[in-house]
Amino acid sequence: MLTRRIFIPKLAVAPVLAVCFISALAGRGLFAQTASAHGDSFVYVGTYTDTPAKGRGIYLYRYEARTGHLTALGAAAEVANPSFLTTDPRNRFLYAVTERGSDPNVKGATSDQTVSSYSINPKTGALTFLNKVSSAGGMPCHLVVDHTGKMLLVADYGSGRVVSYALNPDGSIGSQTGLGQDTGSSVNPQRQEGPHVHSTVLSPDDRFLFTPDLGLDQIKIYRIDPAKETFAPNDPPSISVTPGLGPRHFAFGQGAKFAYAICEMGSSVVVFSYDREKGSLQPIQTISTLPSDFTGQSTAAEIEVDKTGRYLYASNRGSDSITVFGIDQQKGTVTKLQVASTMGKGPRNFKIDPAGERIIAANQNSNLLTLLKIDPHTGQLTPESETADVPAPVCVIFVPAK
Known about the structure:
Blueprint: E1 4-6, H1 18-28, E2 41-47, E3 57-63, E4 70-78, E5 85-87, E6 93-97, E7 114-120, E8 127-134, E9 140-145, E10 151-156, E11 161-167, E12 173-181, E13 201-202, E14 208-213, E15 218-225, E16 230-240, E17 247-252, E18 258-263, E19 268-275, E20 280-288, E21 299-305, E22 311-317, E23 321-327, E24 334-341, E25 347-352, E26 358-363, E27 368-374, E28 381-389, E29 393-400
Parallel strand pairs: 1-28
Antiparallel strand pairs: 2-3, 2-29, 3-4, 5-6, 6-7, 7-8, 9-10, 10-11, 11-12, 13-14, 14-15, 15-16, 17-18, 18-19, 19-20, 21-22, 22-23, 23-24, 25-26, 26-27, 27-28
């Protein structure tokens, strides 16, 4: 089977002119290729720019839902290391971290640790820069907007804390409203010498915030105060996993009776029962994401539950695969069904498309997006011919096209 490769247009523009140039392209027809078929989407891809691949920031594609075809629309925003992206609930605004560390020996590591905001053109997908604020910490790596669209929550990996910001009506980021600082360490002196908050995940009812801390082997739990646009420690304030697993990302099952943590260092999924009234978690299963015969080095990265609630997906960097689990919807426990190659290297992030028919995997180390078809009857994955070349892709999000 021949592979269709989608190459990004080489738009030689200065960073300060990126938004203006994209607007000009819209008028001349490049962005006029808006999605017309029902269910089509824009796909935004966050990249690492401080790498030999030399990504330029956030890349934009049009995704045709019927065929899975990707049309490259160039760099939508030139920003350093936008390693994680999110939108507000109405998909009017996009927010991006600039993930840079605080190590003075790393080029560019001590500058521009920020969070940026953009407005989204619903017809073309073009981004217009609004503002940026300091993350006031080290290596912001994940962020989420609450259901009201009025509060932004950011995970700072390097400093081990979570920060909330008010969002202005125009989508720009306002003042800091809350701060949660983790302290302590765990058993691995290289990776767990201190706290490393890796993600910010809201409960489906928006009452609780969950922040997996890789450095502490804990998932911190906070209560959301929507009136004050801030948060405070829950009671209980955390749940621990087996030392050395290193929890990274987190997802809820259908109906929020169960939740799932992907553990980076231990290449494992931890299954929890979830008390929706108390916001508490109770671990009930830990299972490897790797093939039983795998002997190399691998670290887990992303986790997502499909829209039917029957299947859970987890990515492995090293095994270079996505593991498919079947979910027992009564017990919440999972059973390994398949370990499918992503046809690339280092799948840091992936996303299920809005129709639940395909996965787009961001293969960071091979500069490649790949598509995998989801079997609706088994949940298992089959690689498709469609691929797209993009430098160091590390995050994928879908936004409906109008």
